[in-house]
Amino acid sequence: MTAENSSTEQTTIGLGVLVGYDGSEHAARALEYGAEEATRRNLALTVVCAYIAPAMFYANLASMPVENGQDTSRRAVEKLLVEAAELLPDHAGKVSYRAEQGDATGVLRDLSAHASAAVVGSRGRGGFIGRLLGSVSTALPAHAHCPTIVVPGHRPETSNAPIVAAVDGSDSGSLAMFAAAEVASSRGTALEIVCVLPRGEEWLYWYPELELSSEVTDRRSKELEAGLEVQAAAVAQQFPDLKVSAVVSIGDPTEVIAEKTKAAALTVLGTRGRGPASSALLGSVSRGVLHHAQGPVMIVPS
């Protein structure tokens, strides 16, 4: 296996399913998931390892090493790509391996313009190994040109599990819903559309002058259910063979959706919702779910 050099010609072709690999346990899980996804979609698999050449300073020519820092870094990632290839002994589809110079997030962001999906592990080999979410898996979903799937290190049992789409009435949520429907249809599994209504107590903390009651909550919940039925009907019309269900839950949106990730084959969200920071690249709910997810999460760009 030989790592490909980066070039304009190579990045203009379809990269299929793009996987970021750094040799970590989470990256190995992402690679496995990405290979499965490429097989399901009948697409090529592109495995990418990024490196940054360290800036080195030497007192004189005699102290300079025979091999410069860039060559050393590239050799290291090429070794990682060989390890990645050894993790895919039974993958029958087309696979290419790329050693790319640059920041990992920036490299994957640029390549994502030519991919159908990008897959990364929830944590990598950075210095903050105890963090809930790594720097690449935090930044890439907000900047990628294609949907980003973030895969946790462990693999839950998801046999015949549904695809879950989280919606909130926004355009971003609608895009995520139809992307989730396409995934569910291709896998032959059910789609569950979820909308979460925040508890009244959370609003009363900030707006104590409001008079919220169970009747108000029930009425709003029924309104949302009626809206979800319309959305579910639109999905069913486009995907007639797809089993679609819709549910309105009451609670903290991040907590409810993160709990859904335990049993879902894939949980799908948009980058932004209807919150006050609608101009943010990645909304607070999407970001929070990524931090606490216990199953794969796909973020669909607006």
Automatic annotation (TrEMBL):
InterPro entries attached to this UniProt entry: Rossmann-like_a/b/a_fold, Universal_stress_UspA, UspA
Pfam families the record matches: Usp
Location of the UspA domain: 17-152, 162-301
Protein family: Belongs to the universal stress protein A family.
Protein name according to UniProt: Nucleotide-binding universal stress protein, UspA family
Organism (species): Brevibacterium aurantiacum
Taxon lineage: Bacteria, Bacillati, Actinomycetota, Actinomycetes, Micrococcales
